[in-house]
Structure formats: structure tokens, C-alpha cells
Amino acid sequence: MITLATVVEMGLATVQDGGRPGLADVGVPRSGAWHRRRYLDATRLLRGQPDTTVPAIEVLAGRLTLHWAAETTVAVVGSARLHLDGSPAPVGVSLRVGQSARSVIEHIGPGPVYVVIDGWDVPRVLGSAATDTFSGISAIELRPGVELAGAARQESDAGVFLRGGSGHHGPLRVVVHGVGKDDLGWLEGPWTVSTTARSGTRLSGGSLREHGSRPSMPVVVGALQATPAGELIILGPDGGLTGGYPVVGVVCSADLPRVSELQPGEEVGLKSLDVLAAVQAFDSAERDRRVVHPGVLGEHGSRQGRT
Amino acid sequence: MSTQWLGDRAVLVTTDGPEAREAVVRTLLHHRSAIGVDASVRRGMRDVLVEVGEPDSRLLGRVEDALRAGAPTIESEATTTDHHIIEVRYDGADLAAAAEALGITSSELIAAHGDQGWRVAMLGFAPGFAYLEPVGSLVTDWTALGRRDSPRSRVPEGSVAIAAGMSAVYPRDMPGGWHLIGVSAIALFDERRTTAPSLLSAGDHVRFTEVGR
User: Fold this and answer.
1) Do B47 and A24 touch (CB under 8 A)?
2) What CATH number should be reported for the domain whose range is B2-79?
3) pLDDT tens across B162-186, in order?
4) In principle, which of A132, A191, A291, B147 could form an S-S bond with B163, CB 3.0–4.6 Å?
């Protein structure tokens, strides 16, 4: 193990990966990358395929400055400005960084920015490097001065970039559930984001009033809980696993990453989608993603890279 | 019993109550490999959730097939229910007030809490936090006591509490709105125990016993 980089300054950022699926029955949330598509794209840039074991720095706000202590490959995915030794550098591409270089990643948003580093090794807690902001389970705490350690020899290509659509726009698509199916008028809101966090995103303003509570039921990431005060809470990756508020719908898996892009004050549209269409939306969003190696581009840039 | 989608990768089975819920859990675990290789089965108070990692339009049909097929009777399968005994020092800050709300004395509450059989209905709220529901005949009407009007911002680890017909032991320092009746030294959750981080699993049976008086 050698030091690959040192954190010089940082805003709001944690270490994330694919999280801890399958531990909900012992009270441990999945946690992991909030914007799963961007995270998986970042891992594609290093590994050529999605890899939920790759640790990433998830930047939610502010600047992340890293001082490099060894040569390696780094990739930044998301809305960010990247400077390498003072010069602008592209995001969405794997880049070689040299010893004693300095990189500044400035979060622009909306949504999380992911930084992956070839060779970076993080201890795992319950099988994952993810930082669970609600449960307090974490492998390492990021702060200025922390050294990112790992393997000296790395193999990732530099210059690999991403191709694929920017995904679905428009209203968040919801599979309605329970009392939410009775009358779909509540979807129209209008809903406005009041707060956002990895544990949950609150929407307010709609006319939904659900005064009833029910015996606590298991809930899933993306569940829309209706509170007695007329708010909607969209559960995030660090959210609760059971809840007594009625669940009126669940954001479809294809649109879950977009929840992490919501910002306070923003108006959100909601739209009902049946399960079959939700599955198709997820499949097409996944099929869309690919990485391209500079060497395999055809004359018209039409050849597909390995996916 | 009803089954319905909860989003695009989970199905919720709602039952009449804990006994029906346990039967559904046994059936679904028996057929788990047919439902999905990564299918997880979780309990609520009266619900069972089946969740898979990626959206799958056939999940509801497979869950319904499993429920139709049923499972062998409980005698013919290895039962994996664990029984735990948790030692409690009954000196909680809310002991007297909780007893009064239940219409009994503090010592009657202590005796009732120890005589009552408890079962882990589900885990959640925090890693290792087990919601214990009464099992067998009720020693007292636990539902006569609700949650505290105002939750505490910090309940110490090991606190033994009751509220809303249930009991629990706080696995660590955390906020909480249940009535504190005692304290236990038991280690409920240890993330270093990678194969079994939580001492209690859903379906386990728990007995409380008084120490240190």
C-alpha cells in the first residue's frame, strides 16, 4: 500500500460504492452511491464495465482538492469543473495524473459528482466502503489531510470516455401504490423540493392529506411516504427501512438517480407509470450506457466501444 | 392476504397479522430461489416484502405462484428460530410513568415484561434495532401505552424500552420516543461480525430476565 493522494480541501463529500444490499433484514440500509448511473459510469471508465466494488468519492457540494503522491488514472463524472495543475481538464474521461500534481474538482450540480481513482483501496465494513450518513456506518471519514492509499501499479487506460444519452427528462415517473392508486390527482401537486439529503428528499405544496398511519411496513429506496402534514418524503439510499406513513408510490428505478439531482426550491412534476413500462424504462436507460476507447472509434465515430 | 407491487423491484404481501405473516415468510423463503437469486424477504408488522436488485416485471407472478404452492408444514423443515435471553436492570427513567399508564405498579410491569414472550417482528430504524412483538397470550395490554409525546434526542445504548404494544433494546446511542424501563449490557449490533452483525434476526424469540436488584 502506498499513498496515492492527499485530500487538501473538501466540501460536502463521502466515500460511496454499490452499498450494502441484502442487509435490510438486520436493519442496515443499502446506502451506496446516490446517483447510481453516474457512479456506474465512473466505474466503467476505470474497469470497462460497471463495477459496484470500486470506491468513489461522492461530492455533493463545494470543492474537492487532491494532491497526487503517485501516478495513477482518475475519472470525474457529473456536473463539475476540473482543473489539473491549474489547467481546465475534461470530465467524463479517464485521465492520467502524475506525481505531485494537484487537481481541483468544483461541484456545479445539480446532483452528485463521482471521483474514481485507479488502485485506491478502502477497507470494507459489512462488504462495502459506503458511508451511511443515517446509520453512521462508514469505512473511512473524508476530511482535509486524509491520505488515500492503494496499490502502486495500476492498469486502467487513460482517454476512455463515455457515450450515451443524458437520460429521461420531464416528470419523475412513479409506480403508484396503496391509497395513492385511489385518485391520481395528488400527482399533479404542484410539488416543490423543500429539503434534500441522502436519507430522504422532502416535497411540499401538494394537496395530498394522508392522516392515517398504518402498522409499520418495510419500505424501499424511492418510496414516497405521505406525512400527516401533507408532505411527501422520497426515501434515499440512507433512508429508513420501515415506516408507518402510508406509501403512495415509488419512484421507478430508471428515475431514481434524478432524485439526487433535485435542489431545494425546485418544482417537481410526478407522473404515473405502470410496472411493465417502468421495467422497460430501466432496461433502455441501462442499455444506453457505454464507454468508448479512443482506439476503437470508427471513421465516423460509429463503432461502439466495449460495454 | 393481498399482494401488490411496491415500485418496480419489490412486491408487498399484506396479511391479517403476525401469525399469518410468519406463514407467508416460511413459504416465500422455501421458494426463494425460484423467486429470484438475489431476492430478499423482509417483515413488517403484518406485511412481507420481497425485493430484488433490478426491476423485473415477472416478480409479482413468481411471488403469487410461490404463495399458491405453499410450503411443507413446519414440522418437516428445519426450524431456524433462535431463542435469546436478555438480562435487564429495571431502573429506567420512565418505569413508574409507564406502569401508571398501563394501570399497574412498577413491580407488576417488571414481572409482566419478563413473563411475556417476545418475537422479533422486524429490524429497522437503526442497524440492529429489533421491533419485538408479544407472542403467545398477552400478560398485560401493552397497547395501552403509546409513544412518548416528545422523543428524546439521545437514548443511551442498551436502553430497554416499550411503546405501542412493542418492546425494544436500543442497539446504540440514538434519538428515540419509546418509554425507557431498564438497561441491558447486551451487544446487539457489531459491524465487525460480518456474517451476523445483528444478534437478533426477524422471527427470533426473546425473553427478558431481571438482574441486579
Assistant:
1) no
2) 3.30.1360.40
3) 998 999 999 999 888 899 999 999 9
4) B147
